[in-house]
Write a structure and sequence with these properties.
Chain A: InterPro entries: ATPase_OSCP/dsu (IPR000711). The structure holds 2 protein chains of 2 kinds. By secondary structure, chain A is an alpha+beta fold. Chain A has 7 helices and 4 strands. Chain A folds into 2 domains: 2-83, no CATH class; 86-155, no CATH class. The mean pLDDT of chain A is 86. By secondary structure, chain B is an all-alpha fold. Chain B has one domain (5-184). Classes of the chains: A alpha+beta, B mainly alpha.
């Protein structure tokens, strides 16, 4: 399934967020459930319809004539892949748009060697910047931390100006 | 009835012993009878003798008593006679003696009165003199004592004044020192409080400035600036190898 892994990684890069991944997993489970009910045609229709919704990025080349078993196998693999993804928690002081989310995903994808999705948390408490947390690791690159560090290291200067 | 031969032989053999035995028995009875008779007659004789002796003693005692009675009457009579003679003599002597005795006693009493009177006067004068001397001595002693007591009291008062003055001075000094110490302690506490308060105020100001800086900076940025800051911080962390 090496090819599928590449395809799945590409899919996740498009999905970016945890919410998107969870939503897709549920939709894939619906397709799979249809196939298990031995209503092959409905399962195929649902998958193709889902593929259209995601602008073809899900479909490696299945058509109405494809075997339902192949489709279901693919759906299963994709759902399992998405379910087993690591996630990187990103805290921001503003609500990021989709473009910025993808920019961040690309940035982290170049850095991390494992497949992942991003889980965004928005809070103004950090002032700005970013706080990153994954696999038990944590780094605070927030504006609040930067200002705090500055105040700590330049206390005398700050007091002198008060 | 015929006695056995053995018995007859036996009797004949010891007949002399039987005879001797019977003789002894007879002698013994005679002796006893004699003794009884003798005892009886002796007793009667003794009783008779006792009665005779008693009668004689009684008669003799009566005669002695009679003699004693006569002798005593005579002695009393003689004694009365002598007493009467002696009493007459004594009566004559007693009047003279009484008179002399009275005179002597009167003289002795007068003499005693004189002696007592003179002695009393001397005693009184001596007593007065001694009293006067003692009074003078007492007065002198009292005067001296008064002077000593007065001096001692004045000295005590002076000492007391000195001590009081000294104590007052020392107390003033101690009070002064204590007030200075207390004042210094309070001043130190105030300085400490001032320092801690200023430090607290500084910290609060610092905190406020920090909060304002954080909030104002964050809120003053637009989305593009936020995004730029995020990327900048990430790149910087990556460059400094601070990313985990």
């Amino acid at each position: 399934m090496t090819d599928n892994s590449v395809i799945f990684s590409h899919i996740v890069r498009q999905l970016v967020t945890k919410d998107s991944c969870v939503l897709l997993i549920k939709e894939l489970e619906t397709v799979r459930d249809s196939g298990y009910l031995k209503d092959a045609q409905i399962a195929i229709n649902k998958f193709l319809s889902l593929s259209d919704k995601y602008q073809g990025m899900l479909n490696p080349g299945f058509t109405f004539e494809s075997a339902v078993s192949d489709i279901l196998s693919y759906v299963d693999s994709l759902a399992n892949f998405l379910s087993g993804l690591e996630y990187v928690e990103i805290t921001l002081a503003f609500q990021p748009n989709k473009v910025f989310m993808q920019t961040l995903y690309s940035w982290f994808a170049d850095y991390f060697s494992f497949p992942f999705y991003l889980h965004f948390i928005v809070t103004e408490e950090i002032g700005g910047g970013i706080v990153v947390s994954y696999k038990g690791n944590y780094i605070d690159l927030s504006l609040k931390k930067a200002i705090s560090d500055y105040f700590v290291s330049n206390k005398e200067n700050v007091f002198a100006k008060l | 009835m015929q006695l056995p031969v053995e018995f007859v032989n036996y009797i004949a053999k010891y007949s002399y012993l039987i005879f001797i035995f019977l003789m002894l028995q007879g002698s013994l009875l005679v002796i006893l009878f004699y003794l009884f008779i003798d005892k009886f007659t002796s007793s009667k004789k003794v009783k008779l003798q006792e009665s005779t002796v008693k009668q004689e003693a009684y008669t003799k005692a009566l005669s002695i008593l009679e003699e004693a009675k006569d002798s005593s009457l005579k002695i009393v009579e003689d004694a009365n006679k002598r007493a009467q003679v002696l009493l007459g003599d004594v009566q004559l002597v007693t009047d003279d003696v009484r008179r002399d005795l009275n005179d002597q006693l009167q003289a002795l009493a007068d003499k005693h009165i004189q002696v007592l009177s003179s002695t009393n006067d001397e005693f009184i004068s001596s007593f007065k003199k001694a009293l006067g001397d003692e009074s003078q001595k007492t007065t002198d002693v009292l005067e001296q004592t008064t002077t000593i007591v007065r001096d001692a009291l004045l000295s005590e008062v002076d000492q007391f004044k000195d001590i009081l003055r000294k104590e007052t001075f020392e107390t003033e000094e101690q009070l002064k020192n204590r007030i200075q110490d207390e004042y210094a302690a309070v001043r130190d506490e105030l300085d400490e409080y001032k320092k801690s308060k200023l430090a607290s105020i500084d910290a609060k100001i610092y905190e406020i400035v920090y909060e304002v800086a954080s909030n104002v900076t964050g809120k003053s940025l637009d989305v593009d600036s936020h995004q730029a800051v995020v990327i900048q911080f990430l790149e910087q962390a990556k460059k400094e190898h601070r990313l985990p």
